[in-house]
Amino acid sequence: MFRRKFMGIFGAAALAMTGAMPLKAEAGQDIVDTAVSAGSFNTLVAAVQAADLVGTLKGEGPFTVFAPTDEAFAALPEGTVETLLKPENKDQLVAILTYHVVPAKVMSGDIAGKKAQVMTVQGDRLEVNARNGVKVEGAEVIQADIVASNGVIHVVDKVLLPE
């Protein structure tokens, strides 16, 4: 149902890395378990739980997740995260979170030096530019290719917001 053909997302040579130790998935861990064990996605994990998307992201996949760090969520206007986590805002939270998910496993080498528009689970397209660094809707990919049992995580420095 979520599977659609599209071009891949990143050029491996264009990836920017943080000075922190690179994240790695433990053998057999799915996307959710990988995010939990990383320790830098606490807000994302809380949002996925509040949106009842844990079961989906622990599912067969494959998925590509653009995972905003806790710092990316903290950069949102004050009170945004708290408001989104309220039960009455669940639909908006689901829309934002599924905008970060592509219904296929896309590794970094797939579009080196290219631009692409990719369909998200939410239904909108993301603009990906791997010509000079790697940006997804203006967010920089700061670590790519964290392989999980049901897909891959690419860490981004901003929360992606659908229009």
UniProtKB/TrEMBL annotation:
Signal peptide segment: 1-27
Keywords: Signal
Location of the FAS1 domain: 28-160
Pfam families, per database record: Fasciclin
SMART domains for this protein: FAS1 (SM00554)
PROSITE patterns the UniProt entry points to: FAS1
PANTHER family reported in the protein's UniProt record: FI19380P1, PERIOSTIN-RELATED
Protein name per the record: Fasciclin domain-containing protein
Species this chain originates from: Ruegeria sediminis
Lineage: Bacteria, Pseudomonadati, Pseudomonadota, Alphaproteobacteria, Rhodobacterales
